């Protein structure tokens, strides 16, 4: 199993008292614990230039107007071949639902640490509450708290989000659970629409990827970034490519998302009416490397909390990730071997710290295992 120093998991610091990320204390502190200080070459840059990504009007795409479909498909194809990021507007998700999701998120993260820890994420798992990644990694810790949970589009899981949240947090979280159940359903529907667009743009027709993800078993993650008195030393989320298939992100009005394109970090400005969409490693494999999963990160600031809601689309656990035959020919032979998503997930949770090389390292490991 690969284990380079930069990808080490929880290790050698058994002598020191355990580090706790209590945002209510740390947000005021100028003395930043060393574990949160990033090496100089990864420290955030002040004032990253704006990254102009295409705005895809999903309203006219979904209306099937051929001119709109052509234009959306051209813009998406161009963006995904280069960096994999675009915005969707006129997406049809009720703005009231988005606003409620943000409000309920505040309610959760404003609880005392001990209350939030009722949903504590366990070692080797990707769901639950995590205050930074203390206990999981010992260097380059993110300046954030997260709450993650599973969503399944399968018919027999229609209350799974709500049930999970009530189980871990108690009956008071029924309404919270209901809002997030609805939010995840809206994200799943939206992602299937985007899959139609990706299918058309790759020339495999609108149904192929939509059908592949119809019974998706996805992950919803709430990112909560408290202010940091030394934002130039820390990162909210370190540089990484999403290992998942497609990410649909809603960021609040604060700003902090940056993408590494043409050798520099660039900022995607907040837009409440839009979702930021990006290709993840699993879709890069499904497209036989044509569409890129691109390095991104989130920076923090000294005065205000920032929130983002990420829906990570993932295939049903038993689906084999393999590109359609139209994308494999004598000029473009298979770039990645077949795999199932749970194996890549386990790889990122147990053996490897997700970064820009995750898919390649995972792919080498699979090939070496089977060869
Ligand atoms: C499968 C997952 C691992 C992560 C959460 C979900 C989807 C994306 C992953 C993540 C966001 C990729 C970047 C690194 C990570 C550690 C993070 O900074 O949050 C990842 C998640 C995780 O393991 O918590
Ligand atoms: O908060 C953000 O803007 C980005 C978060 C992110 O990249 C992630 O959760 O994978
Ligand atoms: Fe990400």
From TrEMBL:
Reactions it catalyzes: gibberellin A12 + 2 2-oxoglutarate + 3 O2 + H(+) = gibberellin A9 + 2 succinate + 3 CO2 + 2 H2O
Cofactors required: L-ascorbate
PROSITE patterns for this protein: FE2OG_OXY
MF GO annotations: gibberellin 20-oxidase activity; metal ion binding
Domain Fe2OG dioxygenase stretches: 215-315
One of the GO BP terms on file: gibberellin biosynthetic process
Keyword Transcription listed: no
Pathway: Plant hormone biosynthesis; gibberellin biosynthesis; Hormone biosynthesis
Pfam families linked: 2OG-FeII_Oxy, DIOX_N
Assigned keywords, A-Z: Iron, Metal-binding, Oxidoreductase
UniProt superkingdom: Eukaryota
InterPro entries, alphabetized: DIOX_N, IPNS-like_FE2OG_OXY, IPNS-like_sf, Iron_ascorbate_oxido_reductase, Oxoglu/Fe-dep_dioxygenase_dom
UniProt record similarity statement: Belongs to the iron/ascorbate-dependent oxidoreductase family. GA20OX subfamily.
The protein's name: Fe2OG dioxygenase domain-containing protein
Organism: Rhamnella rubrinervis
């Amino acid at each position: 199993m690969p284990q380079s120093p930069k990808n080490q998991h929880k290790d050698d610091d058994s002598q020191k008292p355990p580090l706790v990320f209590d945002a209510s204390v740390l947000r005021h502190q100028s003395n930043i614990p060393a574990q949160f200080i990033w090496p100089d070459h990864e420290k955030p840059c002040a004032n990253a230039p704006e990254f102009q990504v295409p705005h895809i009007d999903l309203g006219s795409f979904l209306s099937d107007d051929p001119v709109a479909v052509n234009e959306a498909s051209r813009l998406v194809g161009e963006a995904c071949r280069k960096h994999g990021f675009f915005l969707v507007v006129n997406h049809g998700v009720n703005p009231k639902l988005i606003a409620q999701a943000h409000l309920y998120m505040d309610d959760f993260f404003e609880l005392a640490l001990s209350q939030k820890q009722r949903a504590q994420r366990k070692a080797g798992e990707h769901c639950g509450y995590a205050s930074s990644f203390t206990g999981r990694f010992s260097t380059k810790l993110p300046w954030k708290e997260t709450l993650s949970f599973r969503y399944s589009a399968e018919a027999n899981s229609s209350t799974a989000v709500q049930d999970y949240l009530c189980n871990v947090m108690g009956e008071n979280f029924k309404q919270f659970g209901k809002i997030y159940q609805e939010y995840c359903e809206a994200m799943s529907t939206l992602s299937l629409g985007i899959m139609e667009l990706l299918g058309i743009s790759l020339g495999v027709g609108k149904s192929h990827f939509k059908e592949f993800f119809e019974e998706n078993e996805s992950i919803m993650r709430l990112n909560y970034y408290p202010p940091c008195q030394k934002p130039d030393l820390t990162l909210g989320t370190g540089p990484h490519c999403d290992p998942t298939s497609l990410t649909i992100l809603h960021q609040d009005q604060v700003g902090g998302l940056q993408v590494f394109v043409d050798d520099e970090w660039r900022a995607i400005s907040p837009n409440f009416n839009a979702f930021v969409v990006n290709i993840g490693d699993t879709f890069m494999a499904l497209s036989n490397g044509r569409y890129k999963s691109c390095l991104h990160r989130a920076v923090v600031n000294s005065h205000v909390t920032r929130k983002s809601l990420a829906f990570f689309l993932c295939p049903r656990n038993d689906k084999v990730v393999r590109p359609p035959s139209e994308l494999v020919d004598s000029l473009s032979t298979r770039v990645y071997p077949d795999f199932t998503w749970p194996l890549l997930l386990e790889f990122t949770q147990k053996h490897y710290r997700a970064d820009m090389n995750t898919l390649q390292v995972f792919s080498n490991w699979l090939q070496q295992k089977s060869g």
